[in-house]
Amino acid sequence: MLYLFKEKGQQNFIFFVNSDAIIKKTYDNLTNVASPKFLFKSSEIEIDGEQVLLQIVDVFPITPSENTIYLKLTTIQKLHIDLTNPKENSLTYDSLENMKIVLLADEAHHINSMTKSDKRKLNTKEAEERTWENTISRLLRLNPANRLIEFTATIDLNNDALFNKYSNKIVYQYDLKRFMEDGYSKNVVLLQTNEDDLNKMLSAMLLSQYRKYVARDNGIDLKPIILFKSNKVATSMNANIEFLTLVENITIDQLQDIIQKGLIIHQSEKVFGVKCIVIMMVRI
Predict the structure, then answer these.
(1) Cα 279 from Cα 149, distance rounded (Å)
(2) Cα distance between residue 16 and residue 6, in whole Å
């Protein structure tokens, strides 16, 4: 933001993401001097001896003041609604047409559904995100001076469409693997399985218990969490019933069988340890 303000004369910035929680955190990082994650060294921003103000706004002024950065923080959902349903004291395409703006997209993979989609029928979430991508593309085209800067930790460059879109646009790439190797994170191991739903549930439960006992042996009070994910509420409700039934009727033979199968598959792999976080998200 400071570079674009000083070098390119950009004053209007829209930071958007798909989560209210991230918006609140970003607001705190940019405005709360007492926050340990406040992004500036002091309460004042100074460039070339001039104090620069950072002002949070709902709409951008027609006549901006000198040495002022205007920042709108919003979710992509609200930004889309505001632009497609114009109303007083909100952004509109018409009001932005004669302004230079910089779009800052966090969790930017949410605005790539149209780019990465194929000819299959989109589900509701994908269709919604495709609309978001249209909204951002239209904003970017309003003025030749507009810029879009994206941030994401989960871009899939193995997807040909995404690779073609971003291959000459990546400013800096810092993968999770490097993040862990550089010592900023504990190791994360993803485990996947193609078994039926009940066996997935059982495997997840055993893994959770294993983590708890490893932690206990190392003096750590740990309560592992399992997330069972499905695409419909009704499916989740049925899965909940099935899981409770599984726990209630589990037998020693079942446990021994699945443990033995796991040993055969992973006998040469050591994926557990005190410094290892295992993320177990089971799709059902």
Answers:
(1) 29
(2) 22
Query: Which CATH number characterizes residue 7's domain?
Result: 3.40.50
Which pLDDT value is given to residue 57? 94
Q: What angle do CA 74, 97, 62 make, to 5 degrees?
A: 75
Residue 179: inside a domain = no
Q: How many domains does the chain have?
A: 2
In this predicted model, what pLDDT tens digit does every residue of 263-280 receive, in sequence order? 776 665 544 433 333 444
Would 12 be classed as within a structural domain?
yes
CA dihedral 249, 252, 254, 259 (to 10 degrees): 140
182 in a domain, yes or no?
no
The predicted model scores a pTM of 0.67
Helix axes 76-84, 124-141, angle to 10 degrees: 70
Q: Structure tokens of 218?
A: 């190392």
Matching residue, tokens 């103000």: 53
CB contact set of 145 (below 8 Å; sequence gap of 6+):
10, 100
Examine the domain organization and report whether 197 and 128 are in the same domain. Answer: no
pLDDT tens digits, residue range 130-164? 677 888 889 999 999 999 999 887 777 888 888 88
Range of the domain at 163: 2-173
Q: Which residues pair with 284 in a beta bridge?
A: none
- Sorted by sequence, the CB contacts under 8 Å of residue 186 that are 6+ apart come out as 180, 275, 276, 277
- Whether residues 135 and 238 fall in one domain: no
